[in-house]
């Protein structure tokens, strides 16, 4: 199969594609999945701190801007690698979906 055809293969949602021909796409999917998981954890922790009143107004503003910038960058990277949100929610078998 020509390389250009390999690059246009659809990503199967729920599975990481690490076959030799699509290694770059699969690696990008895996890395973005880990980043998305960490982003969600940081966002939840930040919300607990905001609700707990342990952050100043300036810290809340900075945190909001940082999380918004990260979301924008994630959307940009998903576009580059032709990935959708559901592509980052990998299936962990009996454990269920990651995200």
UniProtKB/TrEMBL annotation:
Residues 1-20 are annotated as: Disordered. It is found in: Gas vesicle. Keywords: Gas vesicle. This is Gas vesicle protein K. Belongs to the gas vesicle GvpK family. Residues 1-10 have a biased composition (Basic and acidic residues).
